[in-house]
Amino acid sequence: MSVKVHFLLEDLLVEAPEGTPLQRIADAAGADITFGCRTGSCGTCRVRIAEGLSHCSASGAEERDFLAGLGAPPDQRLACQVVVQGDVAIEYLGL
Amino acid sequence: MTALSDLFRDKVLLLDGGMGTQIFARKPTVEDYGGAALEGCVDLLTERRPQWIREIHAAYFRAGADAVETNTFGANPLVLSEFDLADKAHALNVQAASLAKEVARSFDRPRFVLGSVGPGTKLITLGHVSYATLLASYRVQMDGLLEGGVDAILIETCQDLGQIKVAVRAAKEAMAAAKRRVPLWVQATVETTGTLLVGSEIGAVLASVEPLGLDVLGLNCATGPDEMHAHLQTLAEASPFAISCLPNAGLPLNVDGQVAYPLGPELFAGKVLHAASEFGLAVVGGCCGTTPDHIRALAPGVERLSPPRRAPRLERSAASLYQAVTLRQEPAPLIVGERTNANGSKKFRDLLAAEDWDGLLGIAREQQREGAHLLDLCVAYVGRDEVRDMDELLGRLVTQVTLPLMIDSTEVAVIERALQRAPGKGVVNSINFEDGEGKARRILELCRTYGAAVVALTIDERGMAKTREEKLAVARRLHALAVGEYGLDPGDLILDPLTFTLGSGDEAFRDSAVETLEALRLIKAELPGVRTLLGVSNVSFGLNPAARHVLNALMLYHAVQHGLDLAIFNSSKVIPVAKIDPEDRRIVEDLIYDRRSEGYDPLKALLARFSDRKAAAAEDRRADLPVLARLHRDILDGDKQAILADADEALRDHDPLRLINEVLLGAMKVVGERFGAGEMQLPFVLESAEAMKAAIHRIEPHLPRESNYQKGRLLLATVKGDVHDIGKNLVDIILSNNGFEVRNLGIKQPIEAILKALAEWPADAIGLSGLLVKSTVVMKENLHFMEEQGHRIPVILGGAALTRDYVEGDCRRAYPGPVFYAEDAFEGLRQMQSIVAGESLAVAPAPAGSAEEGIRILKRGGTAVPLTDAGQSSWVRHEAAPPEPPFWGVQELADAPVELFEHLDAFALIRNRWGFSQGSLDEAAFAAILREKAEPQLAAWKARLAAEPLLVPRARYGYFRVRAAGDDLRILDPADPDRVQAVIPFPRQAAGRRLCIADFFRADRTDVLALQLVTLGQAAADHAKRLYEAHAYADYFAFHGLATELTEAYAERLHARIRRELGIAAKDLAGRALFAQGYQGSRYSFGYPACPDLHGNAAILDLLKGDALGVTLTETSQMDPEYTTSALVAWHPQARYFSA
């Protein structure tokens, strides 16, 4: 099964196998998402999941804590922590 | 109309005799009960045969009784449910009460009705029924009795202390709901064994129900009057309540298979009257086997009795199910056993984790044997359900341990469950005002409801009270709330004025023992009746065990002199003051009373005197374990002190090689497994490694000369151009303490130097480490070089910027020998183990492009943002005029280390640097690790850095006139703005917004650029090195992480200053958001995605004259010393992080 990932900022549409980490897709496609630590603790790769929030892997406690600390709304994630399980549309926010 | 309570004042009250005896005399048939299934349901006869009940009540009134008991002994839903009549409970009680009242009203002088409440058929203390079920059942009965108009509630024939407390609560709640207060009576049944059925002495009953507030507490049933004397005596001396006595007509006899009672009316009356005058009884009557004739025989004598005059004296106590223990002990103090505490005893905690309930009971019994009077019971264990554990443990403990309990929990729900589960009178530990009065009020409400004493700590909203005046003031406030408002007896308020350690030498606590002692005296003088408590052994935290024992003993001694009543103390470690060496005593007393003088510090004297002394008493119960088990545990606990002694002991009987290979390495294997499973945090792993190091060091001299326990050799280095050594050092620590020999070549190692070292020191593998992205390229180049040189030795690669794909793909293709990726030190360990075992040597490179497999670009929409004529991204808008800095040029700052903590991102420090991650722990367990380990560690470092010059923070920053030109930033000479002093080039994004840092500065006019450079100084780098070389792994790791984050904190502090000075600080966000660019503008450091080329550091150092701070660049443009960082600051509102 493949899924479609739409990077809204540059209107970039990418196809990838279901279960692929978002950071791998972003890197491979050259999407405009800046990754910092890639471990969910710097927040550089913060994105808004414009569509398909339920197609993203669940966030862990540390990512939740981090985003809660920023007061981020529930549709925001750290791109490095997301595994794509269905079609999604991504808007890069950064820090 | 006369109330029952009025009658008390005028005469001794005469009650009726047996109800059951009278009913059974009528020989009820199946028809009378209403069917075979209902046979024996005596309570139902109120409805079925009301005339019988009327006749019985009337007969007793005619015999002279002032009051009769309703026919409701078993009329509660729990008992009636055995006849499937639970629903009738309320109606039967109303009916029985109204019926009795109706009979009472038919007599001319005041006659009363007592609502009879029996013990039921289930024992709550033995777990037959839950607290909530029993409470609800009794509540139905109490409601019915009150509705039916009873003049008092009589909870009688009580066999179970737990049941009494539930029934009393139900009665009180029913009265509150009905807004009708009637006297509340309780009568216990003391068996011929001298206790209630479940084993309670009458003293335990009195202590337990006394705080609940009754009107009458007496005895009925089980025996005749004579057998009750001893128990009546106890009540006469101590009970503040009127005493009732309703004996059977003697001890029942079995006559031809029938129950018979030996005492006839006259004999019975004589004995009861004797007891009445002897023990000051206020109420008399009869129970089983007594008849209207017995009451008639009593009546004239009772008429002649005067109301009793007693002067009871109740010594306030705590009580277990079995016995009461007075809170004032002679000699003082009362000892509270401290080892049944999951926070204080490792053994208890481990047994709890294993749910070894018998083992836990064993600790409780052990403390009882060692002389504890009370048990402090705490089952708070991160990740476990504390309510459930309390429930499970108490279900067993209350019947098997005779000591009363001090219920130690911070959770209100746990305290409540414990108070429900433990009959008797508990002590709740504790309340304070740290977070205001809310929680204290909730706990005091529980104490009032369940009749518990309470420990109150002198802590208020401002924190722990330190001076005697503060302690007294908080004590007064605690007293006002607990005694004044919640009505606790002062004797049930146990004030703890807090003990602080004298072992730290902290100036702020030098006089803390004196203040505590004086506070004890003041509290006892100013708040009469209250009790006092101290956790005495806190006074000596941080000292060695031998010194602790002496200090603890003398602190206890002086505290008792100052009025201490209770001490939380390990009773097995009390040493008699008389046995203390006089010189020891002088020094310790000087310490306690803070008697210092020129050139004399008792703390230093004590430390010197006890530096090498061993504690006399065995530490903990560790000694019970076999030595090999202790060694194993020492590793898991990271106990590098205990492991030395245990290693010495083990060496006597065990082969040293076996100790290392089987015991120590076996334990380290468990450590690695726990780390891998996410159960053990990195800081604890490092403590284990330190213990391992200490043990190996101890054992090594005993190894036979030719023996070698080491399994293999690793040559380890951080690659050329990279100064980061923490990751590499972690690998060194983990491998060298797991049986491998490691040669650590250090940082910035060119491959030539590594191969030269290999020639001198043949190894099984080479480990290459590096943090920089650039280092990943260097590693691949190194592999190429090794390939050319004909090497085939296995290579393990690790580092933050590496990925598994890159190592297993690109790197493996570059080198014909085995290449492995190690995500962390333990994976490195596993790789080494398979390398020396000759396994998995034939690893093929992953196929090229596998990482990108299946990823396909379907559409790349929109063209890139166009550039302006000046060559800048048109996405950036230059609308506002650049701000005016307060000066042009450079300034230098020096800050105190503690000031950096204001800007510390503690979240990043604890989670990322220190490696406290949730792993497989649940949220509560992880929160507790943060609270109990990480946060105190941070606080300790903060205190230490304030006191010791380990960091020397200095900074330089400045404002420069700049102008953008395409991808370059031109920095103008402050002295001559027409002259370009420096040019810094920046990369530009190829697509999308096509951003470049230069775009955030004006090309059409001069703009302002801020540059900053902060360092913690050479001192910090030197300290980290010293810790590592001393094998203080955990400290090294903690210090390194903290220093790294404090460097960031300093950078943020300076950046905040720059924002203020530029007038753009208004947009700063609060809290953690600030660490995530929650401000206007951006701070870019070279080496990060927007400006990855480290060469930019040279320009910053040059412009800020970094050499004035001792900061220089390495050949790869990294800054030296470590813990230094530089940045350029853009003020433009659109300036954010991006990736070029």
Q: State Rg of chain B.
A: 40 Å
Oligomer: heterodimer
Cα distance, first to last residue of chain A? Answer: 33 Å
Average pLDDT of chain B, to the nearest integer?
Answer: 89
**Poorly predicted spans of chain B:** 616-620
Overall pLDDT level of chain A: 86
Strand content of chain B: 5-15%
Order of helices and strands of chain A: EEEHEHEEE
* Backbone structural class of chain B: alpha/beta
- Please outline the major beta sheet of chain A: 5 strands, mixed
Secondary-structure-based class of chain A equals alpha+beta
**Record field, number of beta strands of chain A:** 7
Largest sheet of chain B: 8 strands, parallel
Using only CA atoms, what is the Rg of chain A? 12 Å
Which strand order spans the largest sheet of chain B, edge to edge or round the barrel? 1-10-7-6-5-4-3-2
Question: What is the tally of helical segments of chain B?
Answer: 38
Structural write-up:
The complex is a heterodimer of chains A (95) and B (1140). With 95 residues, chain A is of the alpha+beta class. In chain A, 19% of the residues lie in helices and 32% in strands. Chain A has helices at 22-29, 61-70; strands at residues 2-7, 12-17, 20-21, 46-51, 76-78, 83-84, 88-92. Chain A has a 5-stranded mixed sheet with strand order 2-1-7-4-5, with no helix packed on it. The model of chain A has no long low-confidence stretch (mean pLDDT 86). Helix content of chain B is 42%, strand content 14%. Chain B has 38 helices and 37 strands. The longest helix of chain B has 29 residues, at 1033-1061. Chain A binds chain B through residues 2, 4, 9-17, 20, 24-25, 28-30, 32-37, 39, 41-44, 46, 60-62, 65-66, 69-71, 94-95, and chain B through 851-862, 907-908, 911-912, 917-918, 923, 926, 989, 991-993, 1071-1073, 1076-1078, 1088-1090, 1136-1139. Strand 2 (12-17) of chain A pairs antiparallel with strand 28 (856-860) of chain B, so a sheet runs across the interface.
